[in-house]
Amino acid sequence: MKNNQHKIIIDILLIIWLFVWVYYLAFNWAVFSIELKINLGFAVITGYPIVFFFVLGLLSLIVIKYSYHFTVLKIASKEKQEKSEKNLLEKDIEILKLKEVLFKMQTKDMSESSTAFNALQEKLDTISQQISSDEKSTDNLEKDKNEAKSKEE
Description:
The protein is mainly alpha-helical. About 90% of the residues lie in helices and about 5% in strands. It has three helices and two strands, in the order H-H-E-E-H. The protein has helices at about 1-25, 30, 50-150, and strands spanning about 35-40, 45. The protein has a two-stranded antiparallel ribbon with strand order 1-2. The N and C termini lie far apart (about 120 Å).
């Protein structure tokens, strides 16, 4: 909105400036028709000074108008670039958050798996201890039976 206001103000100043010169030209034609010799120091120019100042003023207002226009375009492009960079950074943040959640899920699964693995290992150890103790007790029973048989004979 502010950029449009500046553009409108510059356009209005240009129109007012043109209107003043056209008004001055219409009612003071004698001033515009005077041809003078102007000494610039290095050359003498014959011409209409009022026309020279009119053209100089018109060109300066046009330069102001288009320099402002280019400045507005430059600012707008910079804002678009910053906005796109911001969007990219936000997407990067979302990706990092998703990676963090995935990592947490994987570590949670791994810790659950390692807990389950440890529990399974403990069960296997107890079972193997029971089996080994059962084998020892069976071996002891067989030895006792064999000793009892050998004593009987």
